[in-house]
């Protein structure tokens, strides 16, 4: 369900030695907001790991981390690190992509805002919801429109904060943390958008 032009673009980038640095805002988000909410010995899934998982930089049992990316080139390079982290070439937008696996933490490393097709986003959120353990948490840092103007970046989905909130709730999640980070932003040329941090759980029956 992924846009092939997007996949080709990422594969081309990684094939020519592209190696995006670990985003400091993601590390900060994990350390200050996510880690304290994790159960002991949590099983972790990272979405959009690229050539090196965020969790290579974090002190925790790496053998309990699965990192996925839709780029086979990125995953091949990541596996060459020789890390205990399990790297898999998977597309989170494919139906039943995770084949019934369950995780205590699903952490979006700037993957979801790269999915700009509505049907693909529905499939991705369904996979995330279905893969969460009973008390598991879904954590994401995503692009949202700035308060006072509208921006667009190539191959990026940038809703308003309210639209993103509604999208998450629509997929049967309960939001437990929702914040637009002060001083956090993504830049593209002379345009800039805000970053929203969210933590959610599966909605429980009343």
TrEMBL record:
<dbReference type="Pfam" id="PF08242">
    <property type="entry name" value="Methyltransf_12"/>
</dbReference>
<dbReference type="InterPro" id="IPR013217">
    <property type="entry name" value="Methyltransf_12"/>
</dbReference>
<protein>
    <submittedName>
        <fullName>Uncharacterized protein</fullName>
    </submittedName>
</protein>
<dbReference type="InterPro" id="IPR029063">
    <property type="entry name" value="SAM-dependent_MTases_sf"/>
</dbReference>
């Amino acid at each position: 369900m992924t846009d092939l032009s997007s996949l080709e673009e990422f594969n081309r980038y990684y094939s020519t030695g592209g190696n995006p640095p670990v985003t400091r805002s993601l590390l900060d988000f994990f350390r200050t907001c996510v880690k304290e909410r994790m159960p002991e010995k949590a099983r972790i899934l990272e979405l959009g790991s690229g050539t090196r998982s965020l969790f290579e930089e974090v002190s925790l049992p790496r053998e309990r981390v699965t990192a996925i990316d839709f780029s086979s080139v990125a995953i091949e390079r990541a596996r060459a690190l020789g890390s205990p982290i399990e790297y898999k070439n998977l597309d989170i937008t494919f139906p039943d992509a995770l084949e019934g696996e369950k995780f205590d933490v699903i952490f979006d490393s700037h993957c979801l805002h790269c999915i700009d097709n509505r049907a693909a986003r529905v499939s991705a959120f369904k996979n995330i919801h279905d893969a969460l353990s009973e008390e598991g948490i879904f954590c994401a840092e995503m692009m949202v429109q700035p308060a006072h103007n509208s921006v667009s970046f190539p191959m990026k989905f940038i809703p308003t904060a309210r639209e993103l909130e509604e999208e998450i709730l629509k997929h049967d999640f309960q939001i437990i943390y929702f914040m637009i980070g002060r001083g956090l932003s993504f830049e593209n040329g002379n345009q800039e958008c805000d970053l929203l941090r969210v933590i959610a759980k599966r909605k429980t029956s009343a």
